[in-house]
Amino acid sequence: MPYVRVGLIEASHWHAGMYVDALLRLGEQIVAVSDRSEAAARRVAERVGCRWYADYAEMLEREELDFAFSFGRHCEMPRIIEALLEAGVPFVTEKPAGVSYEQVRRLAELAKSRGAFAGVALAFRASAWVRELVNLKRSLGEPSYMYFRYVTGPPSRYVEWGCPWMLRRSEAGGGCLINLGVHYVDLAYYLTGREFELRGAAISSKNYSLEVEDYAALVLKSSDGRVAVVEVGYAPSRAVDAYYSVVFERGVATVRKRALRVATEAGVKERELADDHYFRLVKLALDAYRRGEKPPADLGDMARVMRVISDAYKRVARSPS
Questions:
Q1: 216 in Cβ contact with 311 (< 8 Å)
Q2: What is the CATH number of domain 5-122+280-298?
Q3: In whole angstroms, what is the distance from residue 235 CA to residue 180 CA?
Q4: Three-state DSSP class for 216?
Q5: Structural fold of domain 128-274
Q6: Predicted TM-score (pTM) above 0.85
Q7: Phi and psi angles of residue 255, each rounded to the nearest 5 degrees, phi first
Q8: Which of 63, 201, 251, 300 is the most buried (most CB within 10 A)?
Q9: Are 75 and 51 in contact (CB under 8 A)?
Q10: What does the pLDDT look like over 186-219, one tens digit per residue?
């Protein structure tokens, strides 16, 4: 297969540009894009030189697509995914694929029943630092305790990026937890292969007093005693505060600003990591599709994550204020 005819759905999403960059770098053929905003659809189409649509359903009906990357408001992701499954178009959807565990679980079951290529952009799986952590398991044993902290810029960024719906609970499903926290809940599963249960949750909107949260912290624990702590937030800073720590059976690895530090009883080693995880995400997905393999992450993986996310929201809603 010399190239793949690719479509982009709801291309005004703030991540879509990174997918376009990756596809152009790979030499893939973007044949059509859609967005509910005609101006946004036209802008992306003019950049890549393809057809554009204001309605993704019309695009799926008229275009012969081999593959699609889909985005959109979180609340409309289930409808988009159902349309892709009905059209028989293999795809990767942005996370979280819906606003509740029930939605995503139903989509995962539907995709599985059809044998569909139904990928999800759990992008950090493709990052250099996660690959290093996976490789360290050969020398340091299995992870026992994990801490993931990712606090990024203010929620006003989403308005600036043309995605104000991210600040409305009915459309986004939540704030930083459903947007950022999903990545790290997934990594607890991905790095260990274990199932985790939610043991504690704190969610707050104190800093910005929005209807979606600007801070969340979760504590997860597996049946065999492994613990993962996930801390995410929006903050009044344009600098990302990211710090990751994994305690293995025979050593500790930390990552900050692309610097990997591995400490064991024999000493400490440090090195810098290059990273381009969205490029690698797109490449791995298309490579898997071409080979007839499963996607690197699928709707089943997303459903497993959303079970924890939905549980956290429900638990906090039941708690006294």
A1: no
A2: 3.40.50.720
A3: 13
A4: strand
A5: Dihydrodipicolinate Reductase; domain 2 (3.30.360)
A6: yes
A7: -130, 125
A8: 201
A9: no
A10: 999 999 999 999 999 999 999 999 999 999 999 9
